[in-house]
Recover the amino acids of this structure.
């Protein structure tokens, strides 16, 4: 049903719809747009902001995956303000004075308290709301220097809008980005895991970025790592059961050698009666 709905929903302009089957039991991981997850962790947020989009585009090209998405939200806007310290020192303006002036304009500084008989009111100083709408309001701010002159803020600083993350997800102590994906029709989870690992190696992730599966994909990968132990435990259990059945822990090892490939053979010595059985040809 999801396969039939996906192309119809893709024609809706301005919106991206993700579908996933509801699971009765969810195995860990974050809530995402798809069933399986792959998480990237980095020591520095700058490295994660550079490589997470590359990994996202690489996974979207894999034929084994569908509905690949990311929880990275880096479409916010910020205005970094860089102070020209040499010019500020020449004009007699300290960096603390610049900080105090900006806080008075945009930080809601409390300057007084009005007391009445029943209540009290705090007086907050800030610029008018119409000056909050654009970074150009910084061009209208002036700072009083040590000699009493009014210096425009643009003379001492430079600024320009840039992108900024709206939120930074963490896993443990490190910033992380989680990529979610579904499986293409007829593709097993094991095939998708191999394809994602090969893709992460193919783009050449730096050593500062670590990728690993989360949620159901992580549980599947962990089950593969313990599969040889499970097979060994099953063989040991079968051996113990056969030993209890034949009342000998040595006989289960020799019973196959005592049975010929065809013809008449004696049955197990645990049988009290003397009878023969025909093995299958």
């Amino acid at each position: 049903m999801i396969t039939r709905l996906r192309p119809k929903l893709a024609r809706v302009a301005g919106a991206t719809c993700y579908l996933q089957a509801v699971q009765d039991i969810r195995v860990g991981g974050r809530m995402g747009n798809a069933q399986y997850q792959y998480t990237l962790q980095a020591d520095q947020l700058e490295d994660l902001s550079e490589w997470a989009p590359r990994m996202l585009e690489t996974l979207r090209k894999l034929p084994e995956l569908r509905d690949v998405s990311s929880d990275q939200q880096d479409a916010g806007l910020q205005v970094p303000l860089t102070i020209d310290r040499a010019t500020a020192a020449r004009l007699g303006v300290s960096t603390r004075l610049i900080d105090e002036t900006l806080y008075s304009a945009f930080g809601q500084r409390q300057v007084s308290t009005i007391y009445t008989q029943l209540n009290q009111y705090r007086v907050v100083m800030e610029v008018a709301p119409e000056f909050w709408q654009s970074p150009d309001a910084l061009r209208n701010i002036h700072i009083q220097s040590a000699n009493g002159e009014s210096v425009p803020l643009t003379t001492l600083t430079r600024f320009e809008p840039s992108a900024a993350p709206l939120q930074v997800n963490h896993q443990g102590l490190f910033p992380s980005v989680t990529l979610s994906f579904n499986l293409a029709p007829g593709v097993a989870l094991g095939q998708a895991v191999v394809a994602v690992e090969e893709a992460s190696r193919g783009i050449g992730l730096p050593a500062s970025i670590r990728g690993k599966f989360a949620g159901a994909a992580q549980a599947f990968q962990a089950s593969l790592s313990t599969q040889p132990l499970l097979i060994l435990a099953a063989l040991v259990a079968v051996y113990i059961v056969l030993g209890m059945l034949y009342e000998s822990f040595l006989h289960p090892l020799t019973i196959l050698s005592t049975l010929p490939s065809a013809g008449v053979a004696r049955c197990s010595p645990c049988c009290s009666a003397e009878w023969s059985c025909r093995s299958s040809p």
Summary: Confidence is low (pLDDT under 50) at residues 261-281. The first helix runs from residue 2 to 9. The radius of gyration is 35 Å. The chain has three domains: 2-73+168-225, 78-164, 227-278.
